[in-house]
Amino acid sequence: MALLEVRNMTHWFGGLRAVHNYNLTIEKGQIRGLIGPNGAGKTTIFNLITGVYHPTEGTILLEGEDITHLEPNEIASRGLGRTFQNMRLWRYLTVLEHVKMARYSKLTYGLVGAFFGTAKREAEEKANTELAMELLDLVGAAQFADQLVTSLPYGIQRRVELARALATEPKVLFLDEPTAGMNPEELIQMMEIIRKVHDQIGMAIFLIEHRMKFVMELCETIQTLNFGEVIAEGTPEEIRNNPVVIEAYLGKEVEV
């Protein structure tokens, strides 16, 4: 049984068909990529799978459970975590608070524990802080734990967003353009961080990215999307040399 499976997913926005007959299978520990021109429907697919939208047609299964019509918080609690193309960080929270906040749905001390400061609350908060610091260390941002996230360089903010997504303990991690806005040095650093995260935690990863070096070096298999439909799927080498992909997206010369 696949970890995540999408079957025949189609979505309409009014009279516009944004996604047509989309299929996806992700196995445990796999890294898959989704590429395509701007407006091809890539982020829409992420939003459909993670519950931001509900597909017009089709089925989404996580470990065999139908999650097609669940809300985003329900889907996240079952094991789909994500980052966003446009980061959604809170202006007045520190780096550490961002990561801890992502785990509060997993704490069990409840309102009474919060109000009276019970031993259970203290133990869970201590464990939550320790785990958050471990994740920040994993992504290379632990030294910024007590700083306001908006005071930090863009590349560090991206790492914080990644740590926050990891704090939800995802079985599949969705990364929507994780290197957007980064310079070449930051891109290489993010690639190394994602490899490290994958090696140490072992979750599956599904990513959207326009930087072909990043996609080709990280992903085991890649889908190419155009006008809401998959036009090619295969290994990086197969995608790189596919004439349909070259014409629709990569261009005649591909720098990877």
* Number of domain units: 2
CATH H level, superfamily name of the largest domain:
P-loop containing nucleotide triphosphate hydrolases
The number of helical runs is: 10
Order of helices and strands: EEEHEEHEHHHHEHEHEEHH
> What's the CATH C level of the largest domain?
Alpha Beta
Please give the largest β-sheet.
6 strands, mixed
Q: Rg, please?
A: 19 Å
Low-pLDDT regions: 252-256
Beta-strand share of residues: 15-25%
Q: What name does CATH use for the topology of the largest domain?
A: Rossmann fold
Strand order of the largest sheet: 6-7-8-3-9-10
Structural class call reads: alpha/beta
From the spread of the alpha carbons, the general shape counts as globular
Question: Strands, helices and their partners?
Answer:
Elements: E1 4-13, E2 16-26, E3 31-35, H1 42-49, E4 57-62, E5 65-66, H2 72-78, E6 80-82, H3 95-101, H4 110-116, H5 119-138, H6 154-166, E7 172-176, H7 184-201, E8 204-208, H8 212-218, E9 221-226, E10 229-234, H9 236-240, H10 243-250
Parallel strand pairs: 3-8, 3-9, 6-7, 7-8
Antiparallel strand pairs: 1-2, 1-4, 4-5, 9-10
In short:
With 256 residues, this protein is an alpha/beta fold.
